[in-house]
Amino acid sequence: MRVLAAMSGGVDSAVAAARAVDAGHDVTGVHLALSAKPGTLRTGSRGCCTVEDAHDARRAADILGIPFYVWDFAERFTEEVIEDFVAEYAAGRTPNPCLKCNERIKFEALLDKAIALGFDAVCTGHYARLADGTLRRAKDAGKDQSYVLASLTPEQLRHAMFPVGDTTKDDIRAEAAARDLAVADKPDSYDICFIPDGDTRAFLESRIGSRPGQLVDAESGAVLGVHTGVHGFTVGQRHGLGIDRPAPDGRPRYVLSLEPVDGTVRVGPADRLSVREIVADRAVWPHNRPLDGVVECVAQVRAHGGTSPATAEFRDGTLTVRPQAQLRGVAPGQAVVLYRPDADGDVVLGSATIRATSA
């Protein structure tokens, strides 16, 4: 097959490309330039997509002996990922930009261009397993990225390859070293790639501005303070609330809900964060099999953690999930991903965007 290997400049995508070459495919490497100012997107191990990363990707491609190109997707990334991120926070929701990037950039914009140029598949360094069109969790549970891939369609998965999903991260690094890839010991990037200093509140403030509102105790209705915008908060947040006095019971307070219309941020004790029902829409079924009736599954509401055995039902375009264990800090705008555990690994059943929760 003709395979386009998306090479970020990290160790995972370099080894994924190498494995595609070993498998006998005709491989071409490509690095996605996602920022008009690439020098601003990395601080140490934070962020990605810099000139440094492009050079690391090129050096890996040279060692593998494959053609290499840099494609400029900065404008599309800004529109589809960054602007969506800002708009979602302004509306009082909590988006997942990595999920959106996979969906709109790597497996829509990139894949569409690859297919148009005659490639059969796009290869990435994501930690997930894909066999016979079935998307599963990775072998390395600590690195599993199936959650952020669960919004891919059957057609997109048909043209996807995840060569490192059956290997632990330590073994991937060892393999990279054995192949003389300079990125073998390169630190993993983390946090949001377009906010390299990790200060999400300041980033949003610079784009949304100040929208003052009140911090209100959900139990007493008392006004506890003021803030400069609901975009500075997310459900489940404890620190940085700006409350200058303790609660009457002495317990810490958490963000319970955001009301962007009037700017109210309601806070309360941790036990009021627990949810027993999740309502979601915009469902995607990676294997083209929507739920039929009430289904036993495992629900996950964050990229790492936030899992519980659950029942789920899809009816009239709405997915209703009832976790058996109490999940806390579940925010509208996040994705809920459903899995079916089996002997060979957890199979992704589907995903949807959380619209509301109830206790």
TrEMBL record:
A Gene Ontology biological process term: tRNA wobble position uridine thiolation
GO cellular component: cytoplasm
All copies of domain tRNA-specific 2-thiouridylase MnmA-like C-terminal, residue ranges: 276-354
UniProt-annotated stretches for the region Interaction with tRNA: 143-145
Keywords: ATP-binding, Cytoplasm, Disulfide bond, Nucleotide-binding, RNA-binding, Transferase, tRNA processing, tRNA-binding
InterPro entries, sorted: MnmA-like (IPR004506), MnmA-like_C (IPR046885), MnmA-like_central (IPR046884), MnmA-like_central_sf (IPR023382), Rossmann-like_a/b/a_fold (IPR014729)
Chief location category: cytoplasm
Binding, ATP: 6-13, 32, 125
Positions of the tRNA-specific 2-thiouridylase MnmA-like central domain: 202-268
Active site residues according to the UniProt entry: 101, 193
Annotated site residues (Interaction with tRNA) in this chain: 126, 334
Pfam families: tRNA_Me_trans (PF03054), tRNA_Me_trans_C (PF20258), tRNA_Me_trans_M (PF20259)
Compartment(s) of residence: Cytoplasm
Catalytic activity: S-sulfanyl-L-cysteinyl-[protein] + uridine(34) in tRNA + AH2 + ATP = 2-thiouridine(34) in tRNA + L-cysteinyl-[protein] + A + AMP + diphosphate + H(+)
A GO term for molecular function: ATP binding
EC number: 2.8.1.13
Protein purpose: Catalyzes the 2-thiolation of uridine at the wobble position (U34) of tRNA, leading to the formation of s(2)U34.
Alphabetized NCBIfam families for the sequence: PRK00143.1, trmU
Similarity comment: family membership: Belongs to the MnmA/TRMU family.
Protein name: tRNA-specific 2-thiouridylase MnmA
